[in-house]
Amino acid sequence: MDTLTSPHGGGQPLLHQKGAEIQAFGTLKQLPIGLGHDTRMYACQRLNRVLADTQILYSLYKKHHWLMRGATFYSLHLMLDKHAEAQLAIVDALAERVQSLGGVAVGDPRHVAELTAIPRPPDGVEPVPVMLSRLLDAHERILIDARDAAARISAEGDEGSTDLLVSEVIRTGEAQVWFLAEHLVDTPLVRG
C-alpha cells in the first residue's frame, strides 16, 4: 500500500488520539535558567494564582462589555473592551512565564474556577455601577496578591517573575482601576 492510499498518508489527520498526561499540574521540569527547584515551584504556584484570577477578570471585562447599559454605554463598552485586551495580554505573559520556569500554566476554565479567589457574579445583568464595582473588587484582589507575590518571589531571587508582576500586572491594574473608579463619581451628565 502506498502513502497516498494508506490511512496514515496523503495528509489525513490522525484523529481521536489519546495518551497519558506527560507533565502534571503542580510539577516542574528541569530547565537550565539559574533558579533552583524550590524557587521555581513557589513562583509557579503564585503566578498560577494570579493567572487564574486574571483569566476571571478578563472574562468579567468581556461580560460587562457586552452588558453595558445607559447614557455611558458607548464609552464604557469601548473602554471595557480595551481593558479586556490588556488583561488578555497579561494572561498570556503569566502563562508563558510559568511555562518558562518549567511549570504548567492553568488554562482550562474549569480549573481556573477552582483556583480563583474572585467571587462568581450572577449570570444575568447587574446595574452598571455594580458591574464596575465588581471589576474594581477583582482588580483589588489581584493587586494585593500580585504585590505580595512580587515581594516574596523577589526575596527568592526570581527577578523575572517579579518584573512581570510589577511592570504588567500591577501597573496595568492600577491604571485600569483609576479609569473604572472615575466612572463611579456621582456627576450628572447634564446640569439643569
TrEMBL record:
Superkingdom per UniProt: Bacteria
Domain named Ferritin/DPS is located at 45-189
Output the InterPro entries linked to this UniProt entry: DPS_DNA-bd (IPR002177), DPS_DNA-bd_CS (IPR023188), Ferritin-like (IPR012347), Ferritin-like_SF (IPR009078), Ferritin_DPS_dom (IPR008331)
Enumerate the Pfam families for this protein: Ferritin (PF00210)
Q: Which family does it belong to?
A: Belongs to the Dps family.
Protein's recorded name = Dps family protein
Q: Which organism is it from?
A: Streptomyces flavochromogenes
